[in-house]
């Protein structure tokens, strides 16, 4: 018999640099924090779902269990680019939904290499060629410029995303960068790929996050006061559509995942109280306003100008600070976005709390392409 799925425990370590610790130690710490939050132990878990990208072939789940307790349960290690964490949660969701387990844990952990990520080995051939560069800043710069050409979106509107998210991060003790960056500073920082400046690019950091998923029976046993129901868990890959194969389209896969998630949840974007989306670059956040249905096509620039996506606005986005300021440890990001939503639905987000939050959406986009969308509801 299929069960509703609930999050009983959720937590993450502060994102930053951990040169003296291994990635699996970071994951183990986050796992213990989430287990404590749920009031459960590793002995209660029927399976472990672990996500990483740069440590993808290193048996992350099993190495974590060597730190916190080996119980003989299945460990499923996943790697799906920036959607890896959402993929682990999706697999955990399916396992509970099917009735196979009453409790499982999903953990994302990463120690990112230093420097610019993506567009070169191990992701593929050297980045130069075809249309200039396949590096991630160039890819999302191009996507932003296409939007600007089509709808008149300005560099200042893209930069306002960084201003907003850096401001939000000042209220998040687990964010890596915690300082204000006025618009003039964002625009004046080093150009990485026109129109993206350094302060409009995500922070390359280490980190780990974890969530404990349980069946409805287990949730009721633990008490529903802090439970968060997963109303939708969707993972999508690119749909077929005629297009230039030399161009990366960050839009269609997110639109597909979002449509499926809204259908599964039985609601639309107007029901959302907050969103954590994949702002790997400032241009990406504006694109995803439209991809997730927060506004119509071509309206993202006006939406950021209106203040609607800032804390206190009609639909706050990335009140954690987002990837731009909280940080982007790739394998952990998808789980961390869900942890942020859980904290708001529980009313535990402190100074950045979205008042009265009952329904939130977490989104990630993995180049390649994969999109994960989770819609969560206060039980």
From TrEMBL:
Superkingdom assignment: Bacteria
Positions of the Thiolase N-terminal domain: 5-111
GO BP: lipid transport
Domain Thiolase C-terminal: from-to ranges: 253-377
InterPro entries per record: Thiolase, Thiolase-like, Thiolase_C_2, Thiolase_CS, Thiolase_N
PANTHER family associated with the record: ACETYL-COA C-ACETYLTRANSFERASE (PTHR42870), NON-SPECIFIC LIPID-TRANSFER PROTEIN-LIKE 2 (PTHR42870:SF1)
EC number: 2.3.1.176
Protein keywords: Lipid transport, Lipid-binding, Transferase, Transport
Protein name: propanoyl-CoA C-acyltransferase
Record GO terms (molecular function): acetyl-CoA C-acyltransferase activity; lipid binding
Class of enzymatic activity (EC top level): transferase
